[in-house]
């Protein structure tokens, strides 16, 4: 037995340096990481800004530039919503109905109950420590049973838990049974940036990197939260998020939506939200994922349906059912973009404008690593 123990200890000691080396190797130095990641970043249909893609379809892009699509302008963030505030310690203002319910549950049910219980227990402790101290109470009571008080201290917590359980289970049910989605966005975590795919809109893809200081402008958002490519969704639309990862476990979290979902390699997780108020909403990766975990923020633009359609067009995507539904004057010739794979029509998300690849092609932001913003900003 002793021999076995010795062998096990020797083995674990021998393995320790190897384990340390393996861990040290994982977070590779930043400069070295840049190039391989740039190479491994998946090439997207909208990667027209990269040199290779541009040369592949020069004609289509020229035609697109000649067309007049409604321009999409990034909306400016406002300090009172969708981002942390200086000295703030409360839950961010919620803009989804699930978030509002959760906030109500926290503020109206949980916090008062916790506060009352904590104060009650504290007062009891202070009273007992003072009243029954040795100097004041030299002969202690030998009472060991009291039926009434035992019933009370068993029933009271049970009742409190029941009061909490009802709204809690209702909230869980609401979170996990969302209404039918109007729009699906596939969210992919990468070390250390996010990619967003829009399968309902021609399956284009965005690569979203944090904007470094010096590149970031005030209208991009706060430091460490501003990104070059924001996810854009229409206001009031039920958005289904399919969340996964390319490398390690990340977590997609936007506090103002009450949305948080792990991005696990090889697995598709689903969550969603329906934002009821336009604006820019920031979040962060919420699963420790490596050296630059703190530098892969999330920014979501919630915009009107018209703006969303314009944005989709600016990315070379299409709106589902755009041609038959949204364009009453059918004289408009079919644009090259409408020849894309037809996605199932989402009711209420029809485009108000013909789906035409936009003029304002995105700057070359799609093939960079998380650390790079070189040349990506005008
Ligand atoms: Cu991460």
What does this structure look like?
This protein has 378 residues and is an alpha+beta fold. It folds into two domains: 30-67 and 179-321 and 335-372, Cupredoxins -  blue copper proteins (Immunoglobulin-like, Sandwich), CATH 2.60.40; 97-134 and 152-176, no CATH class. Helices cover 34% and strands 16% of the residues. It is built from eight helices and ten strands. The chain has a five-stranded mixed beta sheet with strand order 3-2-1-5-8, with no helix packed on it. It has a five-stranded mixed beta sheet with strand order 4-10-9-6-7. Helix 5 (97-131) runs antiparallel to helix 6 (147-176). It is elongated and about 85 Å long. Bound molecules: copper (II) ion. The site of copper (II) ion (CU) has 7 residues, from loops.
Q: Topology of this structure?
A:
Layout: H1 2-25, H2 30-40, H3 51-56, H4 58-66, H5 97-131, H6 147-176, E1 183-190, E2 193-198, E3 204-208, E4 231-234, E5 239-245, E6 250-254, E7 259-263, E8 269-273, E9 279-285, E10 297-303, H7 305-314, H8 322-326
Parallel strand pairs: 1-5, 4-10
Antiparallel strand pairs: 1-2, 2-3, 5-8, 6-7, 6-9, 9-10
Helix pairs in contact: 5-6
The structure holds copper (II) ion.
Rg value: 28 Å
Helix fraction, binned, reads 25-40%
- Largest sheet composition: 5 strands, mixed
What structural class should be given to the helix and strand makeup? alpha+beta
Ligand inventory reads: copper (II) ion
Number of helices: 8
Mean pLDDT across the residues is 76
CATH class of the largest domain: Mainly Beta
The beta-strand count equals 10
Low-pLDDT residue intervals, each spanning 5 or more residues: 6-68, 324-348, 350-371
CATH fold-type name of the largest domain: Immunoglobulin-like
Q: How many discrete structural domains?
A: 2
Amount of beta strand:
15-25%
Secondary-structure element pattern, one letter each: HHHHHHEEEEEEEEEEHH
Quickly give the CATH architecture of the largest domain.
Sandwich
Through-space gap between termini: 70 Å
- Arrangement of strands in the largest sheet: 3-2-1-5-8
- Spatial shape: elongated
What is the fourth-level CATH superfamily of the largest domain? Cupredoxins -  blue copper proteins
